[in-house]
Amino acid sequence: MMSSMLWVSACQKTKHVSDFDPIPQSSEEPIDHSTDDTVVVDSTFSNPLLSGGPDPWVIQKDDTYYYTYTQGSKLVILETKSMSELASARRYEVYIPPADQPFSKNLWAPELHEINGKWYFYFAADNGSNANHRMYVLENSSATPVEGNWEMKGKISDSTNEWAIDGTILRHGAKMYMIWSGGDAGAPPQNIYIAPMSNPWTISGPKVMITSPTYSWEKNGNPINEGPQVLINPQGKVYIVYSGSGYWSDGYCLGLLSLKEGGDPLQATDWTKRNHPVFSMRPESSIYGPGHNGFFKSPDGKEDWMIYHARSVANDGNAIRRPYIQQFSWHVDGSPNFGLPSNAALKQRRPSGEKWRKIYNKSGWTVAGFSSEEPNNNRLAAAVIDDNVNSIWITRYSVNPTQYPDHYITIDIGSVQSVDGFVIHQKDGDRKIRELEIHVGNDNQNWENLGTFSLSDVNLLRQFIDLRQTKQFRYFKLVPKSGYDNQQQPGLAEVGIFRNSG
User: Fold this and answer.
1) How many Å apart are CA 315 and CA 346, to the nearest integer?
2) 312: which of 151, 291, 372, 495 lies 20 to 30 Å off by Cα?
3) Catalytic center residues
4) Residue 267, pLDDT score
């Protein structure tokens, strides 16, 4: 779903203590009853999930999550079984708008919704001028949003046809509503509006403003209310979590609206705004400008989680916004308790129901062969098994450079082991590998080709490659087949192997 000044007092001090209670931990660490010290149980993950991705949105269908974000020029979906492993997700570019249309450029804050057995992709776009941003919707009748074709249903607007972004859907009772952020040609203030819908692509009545930026914590950078997200508690009470202030400010944060019991969503007086933010920056966690969030359940349905974007540096509105996730709970009055932004330097427990793996210790591993290595700056082959993502292997480029597809590196893990998959860390910057062929064997001469696997274009983060069946081997050989740029000499930061837990 989607979408400089440091105002700690505005977005961190104006609160009641109870609104920032610590969030309970997930299920306990698994107990490994074996005495096997060759593996480490991997039950945690690290934020951020990706090296970029503003305005994150997640929807779950059966056992699969579909994630999207503001890419800008196209609509992209990442498909995964585990949200904590978003870096390993399969990527689909599902829609590129035609040129010279009112919706050809600046595609913002996309959201996926499944309504009446069909998929709808809502997004804001313009023709290159922000003043012309309006909301649009695509339809897809396939079983999943990464299959079939997306058909443009058109612009979705009320009768005023004013500037509009960040559209989302509320289904309440037997009725459906569109909620969005709007203003005067993109100029502040931005308000949040709601209007009735007759179908997923048609607004059928006048809009009603349900919040405007009135508090100081909603006015950092500019007076803005945007990114509305519907949240319904276990008792069925309706909340809207929205983002306040300019996204470029450190004070960008989350506010909360609640619909009174039995209230009419189209009556502005039936909505109550919390007078303080419910989630805001936390310098000690290196989280600045957290906002434009979404929600999802853990795979087993037992836990509630939120996803949001944030920056990791202060006073830099141009810094990259990255997606973070963390668990939340509920206050005794039924309102959400988001707690404080978790420290990105500390690992978090995976969402309940996600697969846990046993990562093999690399002690005793050696490099049994390689095509080439770059001596400048010690870009040597052994770097891929030193447990340090900041040291990297790059194939030779300074003298007699090697070229695709003549690259490989072979690892000897010391003895035959049962393996369910591989762990890959791409290097930072350029020379990332797009396609990687994997071979395994027991004598460093005869090989079984396991196939060619796609890697994501993300810096340093773990990517998991799950094998279709358990393999037993002593050696594995990685063969880069293609890259993400024109550099003919690829590199890797770290490689590893795992077996499944349980």
Assistant:
1) 23
2) 495
3) 55, 226
4) 98
